[in-house]
Design a protein that fits this description.
With about 400 residues, the protein is α/β, with parallel strands linked by helices. It is built from 11 helices and 18 strands. Strands 1, 2, 3, 4, 5, 6 and 7 form a 7-stranded mixed β-sheet that branches. A 7-stranded mixed β-sheet has the order 9-8-10-11-12-17-18, with helices on both faces. The longest helix has 21 residues.
């Protein structure tokens, strides 16, 4: 089935500009129907960025004033649908395509000839980014190889016997390759390597195989549903084994699935890109305040100590920063296509959390390898671990609403 087209922002028309104003699509192609939180994070960050760019004004394309409009397409996790959405983006004259990364290589076969920039805002597979092979593909998300290497470095000193559990999605397959390489470099023993369906709820056979192999740590690269199923499964089986996951461990779905047993989350850690920058938490706090005033506070759907748990808009920074780069490039070129693509290889911006963002002709990764951190759960709230050099320096990020509905400072 082709992606379902959902127009989330109507074409804006400036008063007094009449028909002289150009309306330019910003297309978001995401798994709305299959991975809603990933999709929603990309859509929300893009929506806020489009709104902010339009409010700042002064963008011109082809000599005319221009406004951006957001168009969101659901590919349902299907590479074929993602390819169809890319064709639609090209035919509509889009300035940029934002995606989770599904079907990226096929997407590039359409966007490269059209010089349409594509920003991957979730998947981190090593083979997805190659500026010489696919010049239109940029990534604004943590690469799997970097996350997996940080994971392996973090656990290596304890000399665990690792059971890998990955799913059969592109995300899982790419993560599996990154984990295997990283564990080999750090000489971490892998005693079990299991693949589950991304749709499965029953992981008992894989957990039994891992337990019989003598695993002392489970390393996951699965959807959020898979993470939740594994954590639930080990506790139902009475198996006291730690679990460490990629960035889907942060997905609110994990906490929603384990709502009746918050204590089980103490078994889970996850890797992601740090939320606050080296310069301090203030830039992210300003972005968060702006985001929540315009888009709203995202409640996870669980309570802790009688207070609603909320999800900070950290993943939303990726598409927001990607479009900040597009804005900077548009202001310098006043043109789409090849001129815009060329400019994206040289412009830089200060990102939503204060980190610098930018690319070069030979480097299309937007997140610094030095920024990966490890998090753990205290009930339904996650926090940086203290037994890791970088993570131990990070400030807490508030995640509980006050009784009056406001967030604590």
């Amino acid at each position: 089935m082709r992606g379902v087209f959902a127009l989330l922002a109507a074409t804006a028309v400036l008063a007094g500009c009449g028909g002289d104003e150009t309306s330019i699509p910003v297309v978001v192609s995401v798994p709305l129907s299959t991975e809603p939180w990933i999709a929603r994070s990309i859509e929300q960050g893009a929506r806020l960025a489009v709104q902010d760019i339009n409010e700042r004004g002064e963008i011109r394309v082809g000599g005319k004033p221009a406004k951006l409009r957001l168009e969101v397409l659901d590919h349902g996790g299907s590479p074929a649908n993602a390819l169809a959405n890319a064709r639609q983006a090209v035919s509509s004259g889009a300035a940029v395509l934002l995606t989770d990364g599904t079907g990226a290589a096929s997407v590039a076969s359409v966007t490269d000839p059209a010089s349409l920039p594509v920003f991957i805002c979730f998947e981190g597979g090593q083979d997805l980014i190659d500026p010489r092979r696919w010049p239109t593909l940029f990534r604004m998300a943590p690469p799997d190889a970097v996350l997996a290497r940080r994971l392996a470095d973090y656990v290596a000193n304890s000399q665990p016997k690792v059971a890998m559990i990955t799913d059969d999605s592109g995300y899982g397959e790419q993560g599996r390759a990154a984990l295997r390489e990283s564990f080999a470099i750090d000489e971490v023993q892998v005693v079990s390597d299991q693949v589950i369906s991304r749709r499965t709820q029953d992981v008992a056979p894989q957990l039994l195989a891992a337990r019989r192999a003598g695993a002392t740590l489970l390393a996951l690269w699965t959807s959020a549903a898979g993470v939740a199923a594994v954590v639930e499964g080990i506790h139902e089986a009475g198996w006291d084994v730690p679990v460490i996951a990629g960035q889907t461990g942060e997905d609110p779905l994990v906490r929603q699935r384990l709502a009746a047993h918050p204590e089980w989350l103490s078994s889970l850690k996850f890797l992601s890109s740090r939320i606050t920058a080296e310069i301090g938490p203030e830039p992210f706090e300003r972005f968060r305040e702006h985001f929540e005033s315009e888009i709203g506070v995202e409640k996870v759907g669980v309570k802790q100590n009688g207070r609603d748990v909320v999800q900070p808009p950290d993943w939303q920074m990726y598409p927001y920063d990607a479009l900040a780069l597009v804005e900077a490039a548009l202001r310098s070129t006043e043109a789409l296509g090849a001129p815009l693509l060329k400019a994206l290889n040289s412009v830089t911006v200060v990102g939503a959390n204060g980190d610098s963002r930018g690319y070069s002709t030979d480097y299309h990764e937007g997140i610094s390898p030095a920024d990966m951190y490890v998090a753990r759960f205290d009930g339904f709230v996650f926090e940086a671990v203290k037994d890791d050099p970088l993570s131990g320096t990070l400030p807490a990020v508030p995640q509980l609403l006050s009784p009056d509905g406001s967030e604590p400072p």
